[in-house]
Amino acid sequence: MTGIHLTRYLVEQEQQGLLSTPALRLLLETVADACKRIGHLVNQGELGGALGSNQTENVQGEVQKKLDVIANDIMLEAHRWGGYLSGLASEEMEQVQAIDAGATHGEYLLLFDPLDGSSNIDVNVTVGTIFSVLRIAAGSPASEAAFLQAGTRQVAAGYALYGPQTMLVLSLGHGVVGFTLDRNTGTWTLTQASMHIPEQTREFAINMSNQRHWEEPVQRYVAELLAGKSGSRGTDFNMRWIASMVADVHRILTRGGIFMYPRDAREPGKAGKLRLMYEANPMSFLVEQAGGAATNGHQRILDIEPAQLHERVAVFLGSRHEVERVTGYHAS
Ligand code: P6P
């Protein structure tokens, strides 16, 4: 199986009845092509003149990097003419964008974070594009309400990773596969036929500088990890924090681990930092498809019924036994 390119993989999935429609295949190929172009600009760095920040903020109140806006525009432009999408939603756009596909009414909605981890872009640390695909009922308007579907309704999700290798990691709901961009031919080549997260791990990812702001269950869980062999866990743990969700999640999909971004006391009104619809949901879909688990500390992230397009959520995802443990502490 490995060595085939993305188009053949999607056609074979369609022939096996594992990819519902040709429109979805076209949508995913268009996303992959847009990611290839975003990755090229990221890889150009200073040579592309696209580093640094705009004098603008996004809907999250975060300063926009030039590449945030360029990546968003690339994704929008790529999908304007396909006829398979009814609308798009992005971390970088306050409102959803309906697509007038003329006679054809697109049966899908695309949600994406065009450049996750972009605060790392100027220091040459791995960043990526995260995407999620939902269905829309025939004839329904692509209003914000149409996007507000629980993560279990995703028909596909994935991310592109712009790191030492440029990769595309994807799930159609039947496991997780990884493609590596062959720069000699420009093709996405299947290199991981089935990605799986070990149930056990000794590696955790969290921004320790926020420790004093965490709720008690997280304080307890992380203190046990830090106590290592001399504590109740009886073994030592390792820590990694790249501050780029796509990179941290890719490490977990590759070798296991637990990723945590809990809510904290700094902004009690906020459920967390990460966004549900285009960060937590697609990543939780991938993690569960790879045998892991993903909760907000209280419930399965994919079961959360969204109330707002840009709502935030606490995230605990990765190796199932660790996610279940820290979630259990929230219940006790
Ligand atoms: P902090 C990037 O801005 C991001 O949204 C995620 O990719 C990443 O996991 C997190 O924020 C990093 O947050 O507070 O450690 O900078």
Beta-strand segment tally: 17
Indicate the proportion of strand residues. Answer: 15-25%
CATH architecture of the largest domain: 2-Layer Sandwich
Question: Which assembly state applies to the chains in this document?
Answer: single chain
Query: Uncertain spans, ≥5 residues at pLDDT below 50?
Result: none
Whole-number tally of structural domains: 2
Average pLDDT number? 94
Query: What's the order of the H and E elements?
Result: HHEEHEEEEHEEEEEHEHEEHEEEH
Descriptive overview:
With 332 residues, the protein is an alpha+beta fold. The chain folds into two domains: 6-192, Fructose-1,6-Bisphosphatase, subunit A, domain 1 (Fructose-1,6-Bisphosphatase, Chain A, domain 1, 2-Layer Sandwich), CATH 3.30.540; 203-331, 3-Layer(aba) Sandwich (D-Maltodextrin-Binding Protein, domain 2). Helices cover 30% and strands 24% of the residues. The chain is built from eight helices and 17 strands. It has helices at residues 6-15, 22-44, 66-79, 144-147, 216-227, 245-255, 276-289, 320-331; strands at 53-57, 63-65, 85-90, 97-98, 108-116, 127-135, 156-162, 166-171, 177-182, 187-192, 203-205, 238-239, 258-261, 274-275, 293-295, 312-313, 315-318. The strands form four sheets. It has an eight-stranded mixed β-sheet, with helices on both faces. A five-stranded mixed β-sheet has the order 12-11-13-17-15, with helices on both faces. A two-stranded antiparallel sheet has the order 1-2. A hairpin with a 6-residue loop joins β3 and β4 (97-98). α2 packs antiparallel against α3 (66-79), α5 crosses α8 (320-331) and α6 runs parallel beside α7 (276-289). It is globular, with a radius of gyration of 19 Å. The termini are far apart. The mean pLDDT is 94. 6-O-phosphono-alpha-D-fructofuranose binds at residues 116-117, 119, 207, 243-245, 273-274.
